[in-house]
Design a protein that fits this description.
Structural class: mainly beta
Strand content: over 45%
Shape: rod-shaped
Low-confidence stretches: 1-57, 237-242
Helix content: under 10%
Number of helices: 3
Largest sheet: 7 strands, antiparallel
Mean pLDDT: 89
Length: 880
């Protein structure tokens, strides 16, 4: 995969790098503004989403701000109890919208401006927006919202409540600037003795003549005045009364400004137990032939699926019903159905209902109607009627649509008994990614990136997520009292997904489907690796331990389409530049191996969307993205041997520890002055050897030693620079009165007195002094103030020189243990008795430096030949 990303870089010719420095303030999501709610007429949520990051003038994903209008052909009917509208602001700034109302005859009334805060969702009684003095009028037709801003920056959807005393139906808004043809098609199902209503709204200032041709053979011609709405009522007499259920379809064509006639409608039973909207399709602007739907409730429900071939050719339709896993092997696929030109049929769904009796994974399914015809040749309608609550679930059945249809900005409603379930399905045979966050008062619930297998569906029951306090990717739950919010989702790349939100209230008889989309999918804004590196690497671990890295992405959708999204974890390919130091797995979990520094890199593909104002469409481009962080792994020192050394010498040392890396450059740092390391050699993960060069002017005492692997230092240990300071007596031996190598000793004629050989150990300056284990010291002495038997002999050695005589094996330098022998020392006399008094000073010479280590005075006495005692009154005393 890495090589694939590299080749993509070569193909595209650039790599985007982002260095995170200073502050990430521009990447953060600002807090929401004040939450307001009116119990009966108005419920709202507002969120001050920061525009951040990019300016409108330089934003390629932004649709430009200009005067725009959305329109709905119907706001009221005598058979509905009231009308409710949801206002949906998909902006990163406050947005002012103006409601405009039309009577059936086209008379116009303008309401007061409404200011929506960023990401605000507001449910409000429709008539409360009509100027107060006009609210008691009857025969209202359509309405519009006018605003200055981006494409679909403001959105709305109507719900007509209590149709024939029962449930609700939806009325959708249309973007008037969108390209539409002068034809439309619809198909629907109605229970026996039911009826249907079609509303034709003229959004233009010109007269329109419309023709409606029904599948039962009937037809209607309707003239619709400027800004007027015509209601076409179809009662049960139109339908085939020999059948329990009725299937009807209509083909609509009109003359007048292109795209100006906006149709809608509903179908209902006379007793109000069933009602659903009639969806009209502009088949000339459908992008592909297959139809899709998601969250079709199968459990405890009666299902109806009707199809119409709107083309002049035969087509073959194959319905498939997939569990949420998307597993094709577990799909319920019906036999293909061949439809003649203009044929309308209902599909027998009993095989699906039968399979669902024994399979929990079929409680709710996604739907695919494969079609052998051309794009737009097949339309359909799909319903689920609950056996328990009698709620009608109108499930939109549509093609994948333009790329912006793979996005969403849905209202969430959880007040009273309202529930909201969001469903996102992958309609392709490729893996698809989408991101989602829930904007609510005070913050955002970040679901992050979700990966969908081909055919799979991901469902989000927002009431369950809230009530069970399920945390988001940042560990934060939704507020327990959350009532109103906005769900925003977007594909990351051009893999088509199908999404919608279903809002249901049994108490209010509401079953509403929202599939309002955004202007463009989110475009890449920034990426980084957490923990964030602001300068010096903050990411440390030790061998055998781990550190979690996470790749984050933050997307952007322009100030007129929502602004920045919250950061979310990205799917990335991870690498460590030096696996001797640390490795990293596919989930970003780094493991320390040995001391040193390694660069942690990750790669993923990012996507950019560019708005095409001419076609009101979005164009995609992609590029590989790479970002880096660091990982420091610390090795450990346990000992230095030897841990001390003589000043002015070079000491070979063994440095012991664990997890020493052979892959990295090794340096040794020694604090203070005068000590340096050379000849550094790695032997194994627990041993490094070096020579410590101690200058003759080095600072005595402790020097801290650290070993660094590519600049990553271990813990420190002390190395002590020793200075000869004192001597300790190791042993004292009496030299016998006999010749040794023909050298002079106490002879028989001069045997009064004593001579001794003293083994000294050189000690350093510590207290107590510690042995200096070095052969680089030269002991020297002075002998002064010599008095034998009361007779002064002056200063036999007034300046420092080598110890001892020329024949006795006296050491001229210390041995490797820092010891030396001082011999012979004493006196021999020929008298019957004798005494001794003498002073001795000893120093150690190291190079050109001299260190006085001992000054002592000896006394001695002898009672005759063969006898003698000598002492320094401290630590030397010997007799014979």
């Amino acid at each position: 995969m890495r090589s694939q990303l590299r080749s993509n870089k070569e193909r595209i010719g650039f790599v985007l790098f982002v260095t995170i420095i200073g502050s990430l303030v521009w990447l953060t999501h600002s807090s929401a503004s004040e939450f307001t709610q009116s119990a009966k007429t108005e419920t709202s949520f507002t969120d001050n989403a920061s525009q951040g990051g990019q300016s409108a003038s330089s934003c390629p994903t932004c649709s430009p701000a200009k005067q725009r209008m959305i329109y709905a052909p119907l706001i009221d009917l005598p058979e509905s109890s009231d009308s409710e509208i949801v206002l949906n602001c998909r902006s990163a700034h406050e947005l002012s919208i103006t409601p405009i109302f039309y009577t059936l005859e086209g008379e116009t009334f303008t309401g007061s401006d409404i200011v929506l805060k960023p990401a605000e969702i507001r449910f409000i009684n429709t008539k409360s927006l009509i100027p107060a003095k006009e609210r008691n009028r009857h025969k209202w037709g359509g309405m519009a919202f006018s605003y200055y801003g981006g494409f679909m920056e403001a959105w709305a959807q109507l719900t007509l409540h209590g149709i024939r005393g029962g449930s609700s139906v939806n009325v959708l808004f249309t973007v008037l600037s969108q390209k539409r043809s002068n034809t439309a098609e619809a198909v629907w199902w109605t229970p026996r003795a039911g009826s249907a209503v079609i509303a034709l709204g003229n959004s233009s200032d010109q007269q329109i003549h419309a023709n409606l041709i029904f599948s039962t053979g009937g037809s209607r011609s309707v003239d619709v005045g400027p800004f007027g709405t015509e209601i076409v009522r179809l009662n049960s007499k139109v339908f085939d009364t020999t059948s329990d259920d009725q299937v009807e379809a209509v083909s609509l064509s009109y003359t007048g400004p292109e795209g100006s006639l906006i149709p809608t409608g509903y179908t209902a039973s006379d007793n109000g137990k069933f009602s659903s909207m009639i969806r009209f399709y502009d088949t000339q602007h459908i992008v592909q032939p297959d139809l899709f739907a998601n969250n079709l409730r199968v459990k405890n429900a009666k299902l109806h699926l009707v199809l119409k071939n709107v083309s002049a050719d035969f087509v073959k339709a194959t319905p498939s019903f997939l569990p949420n896993s998307g597993d094709q092997t577990k799909a319920v696929t019906l036999q293909p159905v061949r439809l003649a030109p203009s044929e309308t049929i209902e599909i027998n769904l009993s095989p699906l209902a039968h399979a669902a009796l024994t399979r929990l994974d079929l409680d709710s399914v996604s739907v695919k109607i494969a079609n052998t015809g051309n794009p737009g040749s097949l339309i359909g309608a799909l319903y689920g009627i609950s056996d328990q609550t009698h709620v009608t679930y109108d499930v939109p059945l549509r093609d994948s649509g333009p790329v912006r249809a793979s996005t969403g900005g849905y209202p969430i409603r959880l007040d009273h008994d309202y529930t909201t379930v969001i469903s996102i399905s992958n309609t392709t045979n490729q893996i698809g990614d989408f991101t989602m966050q829930i904007n609510y008062d005070g913050g955002a619930y970040v679901i992050g990136m979700v990966r969908l297998a081909p055919g799979a569906t991901k469902m989000f029951d927002m009431r369950t997520i809230r009530d069970e306090q399920k945390p988001d990717v940042n560990g934060h739950p939704l507020p327990r009292n959350l009532q109103i919010a906005q769900a925003r989702w977007s594909i990351r790349h051009n893999i088509r997904l199908n999404g919608r939100a279903e809002v249901v209230s049994l108490k209010d008889g509401v079953s509403t489907s929202y599939s309002c989309y955004l202007c463009c999918p989110n475009t890449f804004g920034a990426g980084w690796i957490a923990p964030i590196n602001y300068g010096e690497c903050p990411n440390w671990t030790t061998p055998g331990h781990t550190l979690q890295f996470t790749a984050f992405e933050q997307d952007f959708n322009g100030p007129y389409c929502g602004g920045n999204s919250e950061p979310y974890p990205a799917y990335a390919i991870w690498e460590s530049s030096d696996e001797c130091v640390g490795t990293i797995d596919t989930d970003g979990l780094a493991s320390g191996i040995a001391g040193g520094a390694t660069t942690i890199s990750c790669y993923w593909d990012v996507y950019y969307w560019e708005w095409d104002e001419l076609d009101e469409s979005c164009n995609e481009s992609e590029a590989p993205y790479e970002t880096q962080n660091c990982l420091n792994v610390t090795a450990e020192l346990t000992s230095i041997s030897p841990s001390s050394g003589l000043i002015g010498t070079t000491v070979p040392v063994d440095i012991h520890g664990s997890d020493f890396s052979e892959c990295q450059s090794i340096t040794i740092s020694i604090s203070g002055s005068g000590v340096s390391a050379s000849s550094i050699d790695w032997h194994n993960t627990g041993l490094i050897t070096a020579n410590f060069q101690i200058a003759s002017n080095a600072t005595p005492g402790n020097h801290t030693v650290t070993v660094s692997f590519n600049g990553i230092a271990t813990n420190s240990l002390n190395f002590f620079v020793q200075v000869p300071t004192s001597l300790s007596v190791v042993s004292i031996t009496v030299i016998p009165s006999s010749p040794i190598k023909s050298c002079w000793v106490c002879l028989a004629s001069q045997d009064t007195g004593i001579q001794i050989a003293t083994q000294y150990q050189v000690l350093d300056q510590r207290s107590p002094g510690q042995p200096i284990l070095s052969s680089a010291m030269e002991p020297e002495e002075t002998i002064t103030n010599l008095i034998i038997a009361g007779v002064s002999h002056g200063n036999p050695r007034s300046t420092f020189g080598n110890l001892g005589g020329t024949c006795y094996p006296t050491d001229t330098s210390t041995d490797s243990n820092g010891q030396f022998l001082d011999a012979p020392f004493g006196w021999c006399d020929n008298g019957a008795t004798s005494t001794l008094s003498v002073d001795q000073a000893i120093r150690m010479t190291v190079g050109s430096n001299h260190y006085n280590v001992r000054t002592q005075s000896f006394t001695g006495s002898s009672t005759g030949p063969g006898h003698g005692t000598i002492s320094n009154s401290l630590d030397i005393s010997k007799s014979r």
